[in-house]
Amino acid sequence: MGVDIKQYIAKRCAQELTSGVVNLGIGIPTLVADYLPKGKVTLHSENGILGVGPEPDPNEFVVDPETIDLVNASGVQPITALPHASYFDSSLSFTIMRGGHLDATVIGALQVSETGDLASWAVPGKAVLGVGGAMDLVIGAKRVIAALSHLSPKGEPKILPECNYPLTAKNRVDTIVTEYAVFKFREGRMYLVEMVDELTLEQLKEMTPAHYEVAEDFKVVKREVEGEAVLV
Amino acid sequence: MGVDIKQYIAKRCAQELTSGVVNLGIGIPTLVADYLPKGKVTLHSENGILGVGPEPDPNEFVVDPETIDLVNASGVQPITALPHASYFDSSLSFTIMRGGHLDATVIGALQVSETGDLASWAVPGKAVLGVGGAMDLVIGAKRVIAALSHLSPKGEPKILPECNYPLTAKNRVDTIVTEYAVFKFREGRMYLVEMVDELTLEQLKEMTPAHYEVAEDFKVVKREVEGEAVLV
Amino acid sequence: MMNGTIDQIQTGVEFLNADKAIQRIPEGASIMVGGFGFPGMPRHLSKALVRRTELDQLTLIMNSLGSVSTLNALFEQNRIKKVIGSFFSTNKELVVAYQEGKVEIDLLPQGTFTEAIRLGGAGIPAFFTPTAAGTVLAEGKETRIINGREHVLEQSLTADVAIIRAHKADKAGNLVYKKTAQNFNPAMATAAKLTIVEVDEIVEVGELDPDSIGTPFIFVDIVVKREEV
Amino acid sequence: MMNGTIDQIQTGVEFLNADKAIQRIPEGASIMVGGFGFPGMPRHLSKALVRRTELDQLTLIMNSLGSVSTLNALFEQNRIKKVIGSFFSTNKELVVAYQEGKVEIDLLPQGTFTEAIRLGGAGIPAFFTPTAAGTVLAEGKETRIINGREHVLEQSLTADVAIIRAHKADKAGNLVYKKTAQNFNPAMATAAKLTIVEVDEIVEVGELDPDSIGTPFIFVDIVVKREEV
């Protein structure tokens, strides 16, 4: 999957976000920041900041592990803070997350099920040695937007009747955004709301074993990033 | 009971406190502050300060309910802060208390039992409309010093085999200080460690239905406050 | 990555006067009220709450009510259904209303009260505390021996509305507290659907030290400046 | 009431160098280590811990271990019995030690980890959280439906020792934190029997704004200035 497809998914995710406070996961979600409306969406990072600003100029900023005190949730990537930023400890940071105060999170996904289950942190058969803040994010955010490529690198579907990878949380996904389509969960049912014009509904269904219905407000869109067509 | 007896109890309680952080309850415990070694014992107040200083000069300080921002746990009495003071919210204040971080509390008592149960907040048959922070103080402080007059105004004993008033906490009293005696709990048993020279052991026993033993380090003391004899 | 200048920043926090802010409270609401005695008590919001006389069947969640309180009128006017807190012994109006069976009181130890609010705001609905074990305040509650000690299972608290007080707000809605006027206010801000804050002063975005902010704007809905009543 | 000048104030907090501070850690201790990536990580105390080679059978309680960590030597030297935290996937030494069965790992969601420490320090030993319900991380744990939602009962965390980092300490032992270097440090300070803090700077009593103090001295035992290693 080329960079352009990631950018398309990120841009499409950003369309879901018009105001409020959002936490962006790692991977594709990180790219979403570039497409957000300036000043209207504030970014939270679980290591203890509300009001994440752009990265400092790498030519001017040298990371000294001894003195650096402002990074994102990677723990090592320097960031800046916006004028309305605040800092807090992990307890308050997860009060924001688990307590239901985030308007949305965009999170990378390995699999999503037709009931809104999310698998994003572990692969079957491998030792489970890291989960980070993903479970708290997904359990708490008012909206969970899963950002993922429609198929695995081996061509296997990721949007399934049931996840067979370890779950991050059950029934929490609100929106699925891939390079081909957008699905929304409404009253516990999964609906296709948007598809790119390069596919037919039958072709999409073939790549998407989950049960879903076509929404009343379904539409077909052109896949563009910054006015340019996307190469698949 | 005259002021002098309260002062004697307060002074005797202060002898128990040579360092660390202490929370003083209302009533007799408040008087303990005057007898503490300067700078060695820091006072905590549950409304959110560590490092309580003296009251401001009432001739110079006028309480404006609209703007006052530094009071003790009464909620209305202005105080000052010592140079090493810090302020915090109620969550952290009760983390200090419940979490076992206070070196001691001195708390007024209605009754104490021979197993170290404390009754300090309610009277049987009356509506129970206020408990405040007493239960958290007593459950959490490393040492609980109960300060009380030996008998009720009606001459009834307060140090009993079992409390018949509603409990504040079970098995938490470490030391009992009255105008006549000091008792300590050691490995779950109650010991008389000190008595004023105005009584015999038999007279004390008559006023003290709780079962206790005379400690090996028991001593008889003169009852004095600031060098003057105390009037009973 | 997203950038923004002070002018562009929109957090959605509203700046209203006390009466307009109190107008947002729904009928029969549960309302957390900040303050420990005088400091941190939202006096002007309380007065506005008393003025909005059609609001009744309210539940108040507040630590204590002193002998003189702006909110006493609510008891005289029979507008309070229930009170949850730790110390109400010295408030004559409330004691009378309770004795006449007009008000229900849920008494909690103060540390349980404050932690229940903090955890309510943090999405944690219940916790085991050693406080009150073996006392009348644990009657009817589930208990469990943990680490050899008896603990009581307590339910966390959330509310429809919090009316709180802070020292300063910036125009994004971030709050700074002062001295012992913090008390229950920061926790209450996190635990209510609608948080209304009374402040001494409103400053420009960027004027508050980001390390000094006690409540980030995400927990704030409406800011009321004290003199604008 | 008690008065006191700056000279008279004695809080019992000690000021030592890193090696002398680490000397206080008992054999087989459980040790909380602050930091989220670089910020707030007590690097000099970590180095001193590695230097004290006779300390083994340790339990580390820390959120994560990055790909390069001062503490890696502890795994190579087989001095760690168990690790409790939320993210260890990228640390090669730990992954190898785990695969060889030399280290036990207790994995917790990060929010559960941080709250378990905060509540451990607050004397609350267990709590119900919705996080991880229905996932492998809830396996073997008690669950309960509360407010119609499944919750997991989690145990709080305390430790023998916390090694943390702050920006400044005053000579009474009060701590001030900066930006995203706070993270787990304030909670860890409350949850250990012995709290050792590494700071950038030590200032006189009275130089810190009392409203800015993130950790009051009551939670601090030993302060180590960074350069005094």
UniProtKB/TrEMBL annotation, chains A, B:
InterPro entries registered for this protein in UniProt: 3-oxoacid_CoA-transf_B (IPR012791), CoA_trans_fam_I (IPR004165), CoA_transf_AS (IPR004164), NagB/RpiA_transferase-like (IPR037171)
Pfam families: CoA_trans
GO molecular function: CoA-transferase activity
Keyword line: Transferase
The keyword Cell division is annotated on this UniProt entry: no
SUPFAM superfamilies: NagB/RpiA/CoA transferase-like
Protein family: Belongs to the 3-oxoacid CoA-transferase subunit B family.
Protein name, entry field: Acetate CoA/acetoacetate CoA-transferase beta subunit
Species the sequence originates in: Mesobacillus persicus
UniProtKB/TrEMBL annotation, chains C, D:
Keyword Zinc-finger found: no
Name of this protein: 3-oxoacid CoA-transferase subunit A
Classification via InterPro entries: 3-oxoacid_CoA-transf_A (IPR012792), CoA_trans_fam_I (IPR004165), NagB/RpiA_transferase-like (IPR037171)
Membrane-spanning intervals of the chain: none
Matches recorded under PANTHER family: KETOACID-COENZYME A TRANSFERASE (PTHR13707), SUCCINYL-COA:3-KETOACID COENZYME A TRANSFERASE SUBUNIT B-RELATED (PTHR13707:SF57)
Keyword annotations: Transferase
Lineage start: Bacteria, Bacillati, Bacillota, Bacilli, Bacillales
The UniProt record lists the keyword ATP-binding: no
GO molecular function, one term: CoA-transferase activity
